[in-house]
Amino acid sequence: MPLHPTVAGVRDYRVATGFTPLYTMSVDQARKADAETEATNWDWIKQPEEVFDLDIPGPAGQLTLRVYRPQSDGPLPVLVYFFGGGWVVGSLDTSDAICRTLSAKVPCVIVSVGYRLAPEHPFPAAIDDCYAAVKWVAEHAAELGADGGRIGLAGDSSGGNLAAALALVARDDDGPSISAQVLVYPPTRSSGADTKSMRENTDPMFFNAYSSAWFWDRYLADPADGESPYASPLNAADHSGLPAALMMTAEYCPLYDEGEAYADALKRAGVPVEYHPYTSLPHGFLALASVLDTARDAFDVIADFLRRRLG
Questions:
Q1: Helix (H), strand (E) at residue 123
Q2: Alpha carbon separation from 75 to 130, 142, 151 (Å, rounded)
Q3: Is the alpha carbon torsion for 224, 226, 227, 228 positive or negative?
Q4: pTM over 0.90
Q5: Sign of dihedral through CA atoms 34, 21, 163, 223?
Q6: Measured between alpha carbons, how far is 52 from 67 in angstroms, rounded to an integer?
Q7: What angle do CA 216, 287, 204 make, to 5 degrees?
Q8: What 8-state DSSP symbol labels residue 48?
Q9: Alpha helices (runs of H) in 149-255, residue ranges in sequence order
């Protein structure tokens, strides 16, 4: 399918204004550019009643969580959210609009995790931080107005990778019970995957195959670390016993094939999977929800899945 007209307009604008891909920058430059990229006009969604940051003990000192809590007469389910950014860029702020939207739409308490970034803190630092956060949420959910027996994991892009990995970690470690995982265009195996979508998606105006390699190279201190199923969830020898999954992929995304492959692996292991491949769209399309109806519809799909799976 051709690019969605709205997305094509975004691409034309980037070409006209000299868009610079993050993978051509230094890490510091990429972080600054990512932080300056703001979605416009998210006023279409009701905002949570309360948003606040708190610090908890983490593996390497204080770990910051951002909590989104809608008004409710009783405990709400809780969704632990991991922001995207290739494990190198991104922050609690860059995922703020997505978390506000999901918190209001489900509704649920959302806990967004400010995990450490690579290359200063390579794999498995992000995994360690995120697992510490999941365990803390399970133990302290009542303090947040949440039900620790109804926990979901979610993330977009590398955050989706972390959500998938944490579902594996929690299962393998006999950790907190996870009821659902939402995986939005996630990488599921380390750099070098020879797939059709990786070969074909090289457009520098969007996240592409070069972007994928750039981020993996900074996330992994040693390429061999990518063989771990907690870095590459598709490498897990056993996918059984994992929580029900919602997988979203995008046609113009180099990760399309491995996302589809992960959904298939979960299905073969008996995990309930809802798979939604989106045509005509690139990686990162959720961030266009202010101007793209299809992205707003995707939020509705996520919210419906979480309502059914978290109760």
A1: none
A2: 23, 7, 12
A3: positive
A4: yes
A5: negative
A6: 5
A7: 50
A8: P
A9: 158-172, 196-200, 209-219
